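With this grant's support, we have settled on a layout for protein records. An illustrative entry appears below exactly as we store it:
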Amino acid sequence: MFIRTTQLKGFTTERPSEKLCTSFPEEQVKEIFEKATADISMQRVSSFPAVMPEGFYIDNPLLLLKEQLSVVAPMLPANAIVQFDPTRATLSTLNLLFDQIGKAFYFDREVVEIYTKYKNHPPHEIGVPLPGETLQARAEACNELIQAIFPRMPAIYDTNLKIFWKKLVVKENWNPDLLYLTAEEIRTFIQDPQNRHLIESVTFINFIGMESIKILPPEINMFPNLRSISLLDSGIVDHPYVLEAHPQAKNLIIEENERNLLFSPSIS
C-alpha cells in the first residue's frame, strides 16, 4: 500500500492564448466565477449536485463550463476544478480537463461514446489533443460530457453510496437491518449524532474485487478516522480524487486499482 497525492500541472501557469469573454461585463464574469467556486467547495462533501436555476442560461461555453463543473467536482482534482478560470483558460487546460472528466465517468456508456467521438481512444492514452483550435470549441466538448452524465448523477451517487454502505455494514458487523437503508436514510444515519461512535470507529475499508462500485461517494469524507482504503480489482479505475476533501487526506493510505495505470474499463 502507498500514499498517493495528485497535483495536476498547467492550470494556472500558462498564459491565455485567446482573449475571452469580450461580450460579458467583468462584474458578471466575477459573479458567476465566485458562485461556481462556492458550489464546488460544497459539492466535495455532499452527493447532491448543484443545479442552475430553472431558465438560467449562459451562452458562453467557457462560463457555462465553470458553472457546470460543480456537477462533477467530487470526482476530479480539487486544484483543477477550483482554479479553473474561464477568463484565463488555455487550449491545453481544456484538453486536460476533458480527459479528467472522461476518465472519471468512463463506466458510463454515453460518456464513452462522446469521449471517443472526439478523441477516438480511451482516456489513458495521453497526448492526443481535442479537435478544434478555439477555446470555445474545446469548452463545448467538456460541456457535452458533463451534460451527458448530469441526468444520471443522482442515481449514480445513490447506487454507489448503497454499495459502499452494505460493504461497511458487513465489515463492521453492524446491525443487519442497516443493510436495507435507502440512500437518503444512509445519509441521515451518518449525520445523526447518536451514531457518531459507529462512524468514528471506521478506520479501514476494503473494496477488493468489487466490480460493482464505480465511484467513491462523497459521504466517505464524513468518516473522520478513516486511515486506509483498498481499491484493488474494484470497479474504480480512476484515482479517487473525492478523498482530497477527507480530514486525513494528507495521511490517508490508498491502495489503488492497478487498472488505474493501465486503464481497461468495463462499460455498463
Q: What stands out?
A: Confidence is low (pLDDT under 50) at residues 1-26, 36-57, 261-268. Strands lie at 204-206, 228-230, 253-255.
